[in-house]
Amino acid sequence: QVQLVESGGGSVQPGGSLAITCAAAGPTFGPLEMAWFRQTSRNEREFVSAIKWDGGWTHYSASVRGRFTISRDRAGRTVSLRMDYLKPEDTAVYFCAATRTAIETIEVSDDSEYEYWGQGTLVTVSS
Known about the structure:
Blueprint: E1 3-7, E2 10-12, E3 18-25, E4 33-39, E5 45-51, E6 58-60, E7 68-72, E8 78-83, E9 92-99, E10 116-117, E11 121-125
Parallel strand pairs: 2-11
Antiparallel strand pairs: 1-3, 3-8, 4-5, 4-9, 5-6, 7-8, 9-10, 9-11
């Protein structure tokens, strides 16, 4: 069973930056496609960004494109999300998600496509 552990959440002022990281542990066979989702106080889970197992393809939601950057390490087991120019509406619990299904064959913004989930890390943007 793959386990995902997020870290790096916290509080930041509007316009500031923060980076969060997700480390995958467990069975290492096969690549993992990974993504970030977030859940706001309205309990709506929304897609943030996704990255192919080799880092060769990325995708962002319109609300974060140009401000957030997703990346992963060479081993493909750690994915990071660099968040710049943060806004109060970015406040949410950020969840890491992963799937063994090839990213080209899934709807990356659909949370039901991912079989592995972390427990989340809180990001608060407030003055």
